[in-house]
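Problem 12. The chain below contains 397 residues. Write out its predicted structure in token notation.
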Amino acid sequence: MKLFTEYPEQEEAKYCALMSELVKKNMDNLYKGEKQKIAKRDTHSKTHAAVQGTLEIFDFDEAAIKQELRQRTALTEAEIHGISLKQGLFAQAKQYPVWLRFASGAFSVKNDYEGDTRSMAVKVIGVEGERIPHSHELHTHDIIVHNHDVFFVRTIKDFYSFFLTIYRAGLFPLFRLLVLIWLKLHPYEATLLQTSFKRFPKSLLTERYWSASAYAVGLKSDFDPSQVGRVPVEYPAVIKYGFVPVSSQAPHQPLPLESRPESELQRVKTSGAEDNYYREDIMQALAKPDAEYTWDFQIQFQTKPEMSVDDSTIIWSEEESPFFTIGRLTVKHQKVDSPLENDFGENLQFSPGNGLAVHRPVGAINRLRSVVYPIVANSRHTKRGVKYQEPTSETKV
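Solution.
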């Protein structure tokens, strides 16, 4: 395996096609008849809130970052010399308006006391430059992150088999045993799922998030998008994204991660009441006039081939490759409790494949997501009767 290179899977086109058909069937099964008008995503189904914010890109010191890479990583001088950070979204110091969608990762809407991953999808608005060919918007860039540093499935084929099992379990109650069988046959993936479900953040506004999957920084002069997923494709550099919660006041120290008390989780679970803790927390926190929540926007380089680009179950060690802060995400006082806001969050469309070409998503799971996400979005928009419009800096809800 070479550094900064993504590799095709065996029969990748076949399993991407099978997955595309399966998500269509799944959406039709989940949201038919009267349910069409409430159609949600097939994963990350529960929207907690849609929130406005600002992403500031710093005038960071590229030379200093490269010097630290020399001192702390195994990258060669030639590899470091080939990295050009000041391009695309990172090209200049600038503030961008953003929309954030906070959600839970499950295939259906569940109570917040149930184990799950939590996500933050960031839509950066007013981004100009050459687009990824299948971007669904013209002037935005999407960054999708979760509160776990890895994904739970290695390959496109494995994700298809897992999703097929979930689909069949949704058809007949007896088929739910198939999910347990799949997990028994895939102990590594089952362990990752179990680990990611253990965390119950105290607030999604003070949680840490990782992209888990990888993205390019720049393209080679001979880059051909038609070859991705067919032959190995090399990039000038490959990174992952991170958002670390920090204090809103300088010097912006990292905040300790906090969890919901176990006693509270047990109390709510025992009560039998519906638990929408995370939405209520965001509403109450941002209703305060002086509310301000911030995250350092960070990038982490692949620094050796063993830090896999295609297998997103492999952790990229922060000891071997530190995160570098290149910007800051800020959310301030606002109201997020209207039905209009809720509909807006449900209708927002995100995809790793929406954005600037120089930051294109790389790796097996990202290649699959870039195919599947637009299919799911088109399906739910059609079922809900929504004529989707790209958000702009003027969009109000």
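Discussion. Residues 364-384 form the longest helix (21 residues). Students who got a different answer should revisit the alignment rule from Section 12.3.
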